[in-house]
Design brief:
Two copies of one chain form a homodimer. Helices cover 32% and strands 24% of the residues of chain A. The longest helix of chain A has 18 residues. Chain A is globular, with a radius of gyration of 20 Å.
Chain lengths: 354, 354
Amino acid sequence: MSLDTLAAAGLVCPAPAPATDRVQLGHGSGGKLSATLLRERFLPRFRNDVLAQLGDAAVVKVGREELAVSTDTFVVSPLEFPGGNIGSLAVHGTVNDLAMMGARPLYLSAGFVLEEGLPFDVLDRVLDAMAAAVREAGVLLVTGDTKVVERGKADGIFVNTTGIGRLLPAFRPAPDRARPGDAIVISGPIGRHGIAIMAAREGLGFEVRIESDSANLFPLVDRLRGALGGAVSVLRDPTRGGVASALNEIATQSGVGIELDETALPIPGPVSAACELLGLDPLYVANEGVFVAFVPAAFADDAVEALRMHPLGRGAALIGRVVQEHPRLVVLRTGIGGSRVVDMLPGDQLPRIC
Amino acid sequence: MSLDTLAAAGLVCPAPAPATDRVQLGHGSGGKLSATLLRERFLPRFRNDVLAQLGDAAVVKVGREELAVSTDTFVVSPLEFPGGNIGSLAVHGTVNDLAMMGARPLYLSAGFVLEEGLPFDVLDRVLDAMAAAVREAGVLLVTGDTKVVERGKADGIFVNTTGIGRLLPAFRPAPDRARPGDAIVISGPIGRHGIAIMAAREGLGFEVRIESDSANLFPLVDRLRGALGGAVSVLRDPTRGGVASALNEIATQSGVGIELDETALPIPGPVSAACELLGLDPLYVANEGVFVAFVPAAFADDAVEALRMHPLGRGAALIGRVVQEHPRLVVLRTGIGGSRVVDMLPGDQLPRIC
């Protein structure tokens, strides 16, 4: 008997319909609801050519220089998790967005919202991790702002980082540049960030401790650029919404079809096990230290080889291809010879993952 | 009988000592506690030459271009108030910070934190005001981000804006450039933003409705630049912490003394009356549409005249001077011939004013 039938019989309460006149958690998930919010409320009001590109970062001109600019507010819960905290994540998230546009990250701003009563030792650990990540990434944090709100009006720490980078010469990856014939390479194993957060949040003790993959990806991007240069057509880090959402966005923006090979996806055993336990699909789980790269098929092996020579890219793998069929759809070829459409996440699978 | 005496007699509870190991509301007030937080926890970790300038915006180099970069997170409560809302305020606050560094605002990013359950009609009004302010300021909003947190984990809307501007030629106002002999000019009447917020927050009905002065100050700065050029030594918009805090920061950074003439301060009658009622000192009340300019005394009249020719500068006035005496102190010459030191705000007079 379905829930609807039970509800009709008065045996269970029907779930209340989600209010359509209010913001829901799913609007922040990076999936379909997020895309709707963007399309219906933000883009029409701020329409301009730069914003319309919808890249990981905007590319703007100041005088004679072309810059990449990216902004992200981090609201991850809990603030600290295996492999990092909100401070290191806020640096990695933004420098990676710049790197995905083919830019060298140079400067960061940081805007904090602190909740009254936040213990200073938590703030200190967050700032320590942030400072270490800034140093490691070779960027400068040049300006900041701190606001404090009353207890119960925020959740510990929210932090916005905005990054400015300088575009590298002859290297213009963009989400609308995927073409049939491109191979799709992933730089490392997927699902670790999301599962690390979920485990920390739910107090789950898995047999194997899973750490977030949160890392600065610029050195790895620069390695790929050194090997392939302008042949790289698309770069994207599959964060909120996971690999599935990132590939759906690229398929839509480029107007192409995407085929993924299920057996080629590098999913660590512990991530698989945790996903099974939690009822999650690893394709939708957030990553903070891997990217997908689209390159002409002839360069696929070179790309994988170049990535594997860097510690962050040891798990690089060829996972799929761009096809002319089924434009704007991502299709997964399963291990048993079947196939299924991998859609964008409809709502919220994992709120507050970054 | 003092409160302490009453407390000792068991007649009232002593106020609990503020915890020193936790963030307090006053850390976000723009006063002494904010300065301590910055000095003790942020600056030592992110030390670099640009950050150390502590201007309203950072000045950075990208290739051959010098840019100004400024970030601010807005947490104002209530979200809507007479004269604006958090959307217009978030644009004005950041473009003004760029203008104070002598930069022409070009690009903005916007990072939203939305609380689950926020009515869309509120969000729509905020975005409408933001879009109008962006258009009026002639800037482009080029990239954005939206996060959603659970009900009760934020307060409606927080929004970070980060702005990028291009430095105007031969115009380098900076907070450490004040020199004895400079005249201090204010571009308009003070106290309106803070009082408008307090009135909206407390549901106070004053006889005269006081509107926030929130406005884009770049055209007024550009007018002053046209009249005086590089002679302008310091510009600062006295937002959080008011005129008193802004002048104290300048006195400290320039190592000079500042004298203010109480009778010259342009305080609108309704602001005076409201301040008296609420027990506030207008010198500490936030403004979002005025700036102080330091210019050599010989140019003071020219500066006031230039400002008064613009609608936003009609209330411009000469309010004080830079002196060699009492370095790092701001002293108010009162109407009755006395004087008192105007210190930075120790803690929180008006939380969540911007």
